[in-house]
Structure formats: C-alpha cells, structure tokens
Amino acid sequence: MAHPRKRKISHENRVFLYTLLGGLPAVIVAMVLLLWFVPAADSKIKWTLGLLIFGFWLGYALAVRERVVRPLQTMANLLTALREGDFSTRARGANRDEPLGDVLAEINLLSGTLQEQRLGALEATALLRTVMEEIDVAIFAFDANETLRLVNRAGQELLAQPAERILGRPAQDLDMADCLAGEGTRVLSRTFPGGKGRWGMRRTLFREGGLPHSLVVIADLSQPLREEELRAWQRLVRVIGHELNNSLAPIKSIAGSLNTMLRRPQKADDWEDDLRGGLEIIEARAEGLNQFMQSYARLAKLPAPNKQPCEIGPLLRRVVALETRTNVQLDPGPELTVNVDTAQLEQVIINLVKNAVEAAPEPAHSAPPTCCVRVGWQKTPGAMEITVTDDGPGIANLQNLFVPFFTTKPSGSGIGLVLCRQIAENHGGSLALENRTDTHGCVARLRLPL
User: Fold this and answer.
1) 339 with 436, same domain?
2) Cα–Cα distance between 216 and 414 in angstroms, integer?
3) What pLDDT, in 10s, does the model give residues 128-184?
4) φ/ψ of residue 437, rounded to 5
5) Is 398:433 a contact under the CB 8 Å cutoff?
6) Of 163, 176, 170, which is closest to residue 218 (Cα–Cα)?
7) What is the count of structural domains for the chain?
8) Residue 201 falls within a domain, yes or no?
9) pTM of full prediction above 0.70
C-alpha cells in the first residue's frame, strides 16, 4: 500500500513558524510573570496585557515573514521577465552594502548584459538577412528531414516561387534531392525552374537547436564561364595574330620584292643570289610559324596522364644522367613509389633541369667544374616534393613565368613551363618557381600527391 505523500511546508510558512518558535520562550515568560504579579481581581488587565503580548508576537512574526518573502518574490519576477525575454525590468533599491542588494544588483547587471546581447543578435540577424537578400547566389537551408527552412531572394528566383510557397516543403518536391546527396562541392549541369546551365554547388553542415542542418549554396557559372571563354579567345587571337603578323609581314615584303625583281626586263648579275636569299628567308619564317603552331597544338592537346607505379629515385637518376653540359648533383632522398605518368613526369624533370642548366653560370675554361644545379626529393605530409636548384641570376619577372609563349631565351618557345605546370596539375599536384633566399639562383618545386 502506497504511503500518502507528506505535504511540505512552504518556505514562507517555515519562516513564519521559526519566528513564532523563536519568540515563544519570551511569550511564555511574559505570561507567567503576568499571571504571577497581576492580582486575580484585575482579570481585565490580564486579558488586555495578554492580548497585547500575543498581538506583538504574531505581528512581529508576520513582519519577518513578509520581509523575507517580498525580496524573493521580486527576484522571481525579475528572473521570469528574463526568461520571457523582457530585459527592461529592473529591481529598485539594489544596494551593494548588503548581500540582498548584491543579488538584486547582479540581476540588474544580467538584465543589461542580456539586453545588449539581444540587440547585437538582432542587428547581426538583420545584417545577415540583408546580405542574404542582396547576394547573387542562391542559399537554401534544409533540416534533418530534408525540409526547406530558409531561402534567400536568389533561391526564390532559382525555383521561380516565393518563399511562402516553398518553405516547409521537402527537397524531393522542390527537385533538389540531388543537391543533398553526393559530393559536397561539385558542378551541376541541369535545369531549374528559374534557369538552366552550369551551376557551382557547395553543401556544408551546421547545427541549430542541436539538430543537423544542411546549407546548400548554388551559383550560376554560365555567365562567368562565358566571360572567361571570351577573354581566353581574345588572348588566343591576340597571341596568334601577333605571331602571324611577325611572320607574314616579312614574307609578304620579301615576296613582293622578289616579284618586282623578276618582272624587270634587265636583271642584275646577282639576281639569282638575291632570289635564293629571299626564298631562304621565306622558308625560315614559314618554318618558324609552323613550329609555333605545332607548339600551340602540343599545348592544347596534352593527353590525360596514364598513371602507373613509378620509383622516383631511378627516374631522377636517369634524367640527371642525360645532362652532360654541366655537373648536375643528385641529392639522395627516401625510396618512394608514386602513381604517375612516367613519360610525362620525366619530361617535366628534363625541362626543369634544362632550364636550370641554361640559367646556371658557365665556369671558366681553366676553373675546375663545380656543381651549379642540384636535384633532390623529399616526402612531405601527404605529398612528395622534387626540387631543382640552380646558382644563376634568379628570375626577374615571376609573374610572367607561366604565360604561354613568354620567354627570355632567344630561341625559346615559351611553352615549356606552361606544359610542366599543366602536367603537374593533371596529376593533382603543383609547380612553383621562386628565387632563392639564401643566395642567388632559383628553385623549382614540383609537388605530387602520394
């Protein structure tokens, strides 16, 4: 049988009871003295004094109860206002000279702090909403059930519906389920109600209220791609036009001169030599133009790498052995095997070593051969780095190193470094050239993922 639960005495009743108990001995003593010293005939005086004693006793107990309960009620009202978001309510008479005043003053300070934080949060939220409305990319927020919870103006335009009609709907109904699956960052080629083309999508996860949410950002890539394509065509036409003019202008001039010479009724004695020399110039310029076009085709038709396991040490030793113009030193490194296109990687190292050798100073005939070029490799976190270092004068213009057909060599084509970087990037790596900081010279760093 369950025992009935005992009723607890409230805090204010306990204070009232303890106050009564505290004054009870004094009341008992006062009543004993009243009965002892006041004659029995004066019963009216006894009742008056007794009621007066009991009145003071009960009144004092009630005053103590009220004095304790009223500040607690005030603090409860203040905390209730804070819980409900009303930060404007303050306690009066918060005097720090006493503990109760300290508590009330701290509650007042807490109210002010929360009020400032709420104002800051409201301002930040308003700024965030303004930015989201003005930004050109579409932003969607889905909860754990793939239900749309937030969308900006660009997102409404992408789905061609106002926010009132799409908020609260699942991603499947909005034809966006594919945006919540697969890779988090990728390019989409699809049609939305608000447009079609190529879209750059990025998906990230965040938590709100302890629950996971997905933030999907979709940007239109069609216009930037068209603008970049136009700039690429303009650069291509400018480069090819420049090279064609450089070759066709002298060819046209020499061909016109030779045509005029052949039409003369009286020819000079050495006209055959002039004809032969003019034709040789035309042939040389045509050959140069042919090499230029072949170089451009080679740059544009670089095949995808055929990756196979390759040992780095033997490959670098083979490349170093090919260079006989100067002393190339191979610094030892760890034994590494990586998946690369061996032929393409070998071509990159050959080009880098060739550039380093051509940049290194030539030793005097009487001086003993010194090491001007060093090749080494090392393992870094998640990658492998091959370095080619020379003792040359360094690079004066680092910005134009990877510009196609830019070269500082009299017979250079200007595509070697561009090809090298393209091969490195096709392998998921990178190629960088920088001037040495310890001395004069340059260092090329080829990084490939392991």
Assistant:
1) yes
2) 42
3) 777 777 788 888 999 988 899 888 888 888 888 888 899 899 988 888 888 888 888
4) -100, -20
5) yes
6) 176
7) 4
8) yes
9) no
